[in-house]
Amino acid sequence: MKTIIFLFISLTMITSTPLTCSEALTTAECTNIINGIHECIWHENQCQLKTCQNSQIPCDGLVYQGELCSNSQQGCQSVKECSDIDNQESCSTLRPQGVECHWDQQCKVKNCSHNTKSNCKLTNSEKCIYQNEKCSSINQCSDIVEKSRCLVSQIQGLDCIWSNDSCLTNNCKAVLNKEECFKSVRNSEKCFYTQNRNGDNHCLSCSQLAEECKCNEYGIFGCQWQNNSCFEASCNQYTNEISCTHESECVWYKPMNKCVTTQEANQYDRACDIYIYGSILHICTLLILIVLW
Ligand SMILES: *[C@@H]1O[C@H](CO)[C@@H](O)[C@H](O)[C@H]1NC(C)=O
Ligand SMILES: *[C@@H]1O[C@H](CO)[C@@H](O)[C@H](O)[C@H]1NC(C)=O
Ligand SMILES: *[C@@H]1O[C@H](CO)[C@@H](O)[C@H](O)[C@H]1NC(C)=O
Q1: Which positions carry the signal peptide feature in this UniProt record (predicted)?
Q2: pTM value > 0.85
Q3: I need a labelling partner for 56 at 20 to 30 A (CA). Which of 23, 69, 189, 234 fits?
Q4: Sequence ranges of the domains in the chain
């Protein structure tokens, strides 16, 4: 019996408090509804979900029902793209769907050419560089003509270097001489110098070889054709000792039962020595403590 009364009371309480905007019958009830996500507003004699359209200006930057609001001549409006904005101030502050806008008689999607020298940087994911006295959009290192701009390109995600009086992608191709080439590593690939008989040679790495026969030709430098592209084979692709030791640069590392480069093996050994040394120190300290006790 008690449970039934309790249930009855609970039910009346639930039903008498409006939970959604449309259930509220007075202004007071309407503004009191706080059901987490949605705000309500008393508009045209009923309680409605708050939207840009039923809100008052100023409303720049407010978001209702996932829609961005902007001031406009028609009051508050929801905007999806720059061209939905009708005034300069909202155009320069709002970013519909994350897009930066620019006012030039109307509201447009901003691009590099709208930037001045001081704000010539990544604009709506477009890489911009100030050169030839304007802010222009670039896609690759070779689009950059000035050395000083080339050197700061990494700020926008391009890795360029100034070499041979031009701006080049910082890969093996940008290494000009043979000695330097064999000592270089780019994007964790070793560089090597080509061996064309006609003397037209340059510095490359496996991933720059687009043809299978070329790739195989440089097998001595570890290049391997796989999945339609040329890779530098890495030792850890070999899973047994026989195939591993077949490669001159790889050794089978017994403690881990895996194929690694000689360099890696040395590193592991050093780490291991330090560990053993550390353990010995530890044991000695313990012994001394025990003796002193
Ligand atoms: C930049 O936007 C203007 C319009 O404001 C357009 O004329 C121009 O072509 C755009 N430039 C680029 C690189 O997209
Ligand atoms: C250096 O640039 C010149 C002119 O662009 C070009 O002809 C030459 O092949 C380049 N040298 C190297 C080593 O890439
Ligand atoms: C080969 O390329 C495809 C598509 O690029 C990729 O899904 C797959 O994992 C690659 N396989 C190997 C063994 O790299």
Answers
A1: 1-16
A2: no
A3: 23
A4: 171-233
